[in-house]
Protein: Kinesin motor domain-containing protein
Amino acid sequence: MASIPSDRSKAITRRKVRVIAKIRGFTDTHAEFPANSGASTTPRFSVNKPNGEASESVTIFFPAQSGSCKEYCDVDYCYDQHEDNDLIFSREIKPLIFEVFEGCNPTIIACGGRLSGKTYLIQGSDGKPGLATLAVSKILSMADQTRNSITISFYEVYQEHVHDLLDPKQPVVSILEDKGKIQHKGLSQVPIRSIAEFYRLYFSGSSSCKSGQKPAIELPRRSHRGLVVNVLSSAENSDTRLVGKMNFVDLAGYEDGRRKSTDGINLVESAKINKSIYAMYNVIYSLNANERHVPYRESKITHMLKDSFDGMNRILLFTCLNPSSCQDSVYMLSLASRSCRGINRVVTGFTKEAKSMTRPMVPSSQKNGPPASVPTTVKKKHTASQVHFSKKKDNVMASTMKGRKLFDEGSRQTQSEKAISLEDIDSADEPLVQEEGKCIPNVTNLTVLSEVEAFSLPTSNMVKTTIPNKDVFMASKVCLHGGDITPSPRASSSTNGASFTEQVHSMDKENQSSLVDKVISPPLSARLRELSNNLKSLWSSTPLHIKLLEENDASSYGQVCTEIVEPKTPIMDWSIVNEGWDVANVHSPWETLSMRNSGMKNSIVQDYLKFLNTADKEDLKRLKGIGEKRATSILELREESSEPFKSLDDLKEVGLSAKQIKGMMKKEVAELFN
Ligand SMILES: Nc1ncnc2c1ncn2[C@@H]1O[C@H](COP(=O)(O)OP(=O)(O)OP(=O)(O)O)[C@@H](O)[C@H]1O
Structure:
């Protein structure tokens, strides 16, 4: 077996996330066409490795059929079709196993288009063990010698719900965060002592529907699957136990939402899957760029892995390439390449102190081994307003986020998909114990070798819109439910030949223009007026009595409308209002608003936040309760953070609690209507 060339091991330490491509091996149908025979019609990726196996960066050239106007991209390394899991294991995974025994949490992720060999790589196939299987076998043999105990957890993330695959009932697992620490409430940790036990749990204990283990009756479903291998070891002269874990993540296959899905999966489901894949890339980009804020919360899978991604833990991102579906493969590969391109930060000084910072300890009370299942004690607190707020928040934030992302889900979605996402943006299904703390990476052990290359990030090409009003939301919803969804002209034109690279360029252009927008900001008065108009329109609208479609209007049935309906202030039917709502009991505009649904209040909060995110000092000072000092602090906080304020809690750092701000807003609203 080949040993790791010294240059290669250096390369492994170069970046937080190492991006590796793997061209899918020959399946039975391709077996008769060896790579160099030229007999196969399957398009081929070609790879240039300047220093052979020791190359620190390799170039992958796309096949002509890829549909990309770009011809190649660079990644850290690429394994060819004939290079199998054993070789990848010995070169890439083995070095990480030693780190697990020292308390680190490396993560191996497989991503790529449909049928690109992700499951084959991670899990393996009949008689051919995958990376996880090989790793567990090695870990078990090492644990035998060191008297460590091993447990595994196996989960599935399906439509942003986490399920425990080792529990026959497959209960939903809650992801909780307490003081930056992630807890997987309800996820089993099952002890294993032999590889046979592992096989039983990993292959048959789960209701696996991945290739090779497809149960006959189960419908295929695209989901992310994760295996956690926990190593518990006794630390000498200490009453604590070190915990290291290795994560293996088999992401759902990416599929361009504009094409008809191969397994009949609907558009909304597909958009959700792609959204979480994008979220993973965004996290990886942020980690590689050493950004202060890493958007872990954008998807369940990234939030679950936050603990393992933080600190000095290593991540391997395998981009699997399916030569026969090269458009999706090339797209995924390009994104992976972009997530590390131009970032030359070198992780050095991987010292004991650094490791100890990421090394989680469990109290000695758990010395006898972890429980078979972590009890779920935290009750779900689902309230309608929470869910609503979350939806609104996502929408409004989506419209205000600019520039910093590697890309967003909108970049590959049609207009209609975007509309669907708007109505169906997933809300967090469990309350989180605490808001995510700002992630300040450990920079003491990082050395910047060269400046970060200017890296133009495509901005969100989401429609830049403010949706302050539930009316708009509902109107678009009603129309979309009418029938088929027609792609926008832009989307269809891109399907007819325009490549994703062109889209990326156009996104770059949009980014430029959004920067221009930023420079030429509207006058102060206009922005204050916008805020007050939004507040007024919210106050005066009547969502409780609004009639979107005339009930008796037969002509409206079965009509398909893909247009977003412009918001109009509805005419108040005072007779209805007076019947159901005693106006005389209302004392202030805020109380009036309080009687409406919580979505409206949240819209006001979002408007207020939007204002705080964009206003300059003079504007800020005009707000009730924000003087010179606070305005300066808000501006400083805004400059420091690459993210806009997402919730009122984000302003705690300038000494303003959410309660105080709400009090200030009450005054503001009261003044507007007096
Ligand atoms: N290196 C390889 N050698 C031989 N066959 C392979 C190899 N990689 C993948 N395959 C075969 O290709 C097919 C698809 O592989 P696999 O199921 O791993 O893809 P996937 O990316 O996980 O699919 P999905 O999109 O459903 O998640 C399987 O039949 C698998 O056995």
